[in-house]
Amino acid sequence: MPWRPMLASDIPAVFDLSLRIHPGYPESEPVLAERQAFAPDRCWILEGKEEPAGYFLVHPWRLGTPPVLNALLGSLPDNPDTLYFHDLALLPQARGTGAAGEIVRRSIENAQPFTTISLVAVNGTAPFWSRFGFRVEDRPELSDKLQSYGPGTRYMVRR
Hints:
Helix content is about 25%, strand content about 25%. The chain is an alpha+beta fold. Strand 4, helix 3 and strand 5 form a beta-alpha-beta unit. Helix 1 crosses helix 2.
């Protein structure tokens, strides 16, 4: 299953995938479209046999200030200093194929000019992200925001 750059025209399929893959973390089509528009050269679609099998939304942001779930941001912040891995989602048939690791490694290799990459790990995925050098950062000021993502959520950074 090959990854290809995500286009604006892919957003309806991304929205459908998001509802199917993680309905507990709903984000609207406009929110997904905004994230893709922030960095179209950093967002990806995993091509399946009959339909997309996954996606990866990535955009520049500010370290220590992960975006609120399902909120339009309006624009990128002045002087973004981290590459933010917003959402990696795969259908069950794409899991275990190495596709997630492939796109994460590719995105890390192409993170320049950023010297940090950050993300919010949900559903117990911190061990997955730690394999790629991400470490949990304890930031008490984020506790309310992280709670909105559910129990076990961790803010992680790769330096």
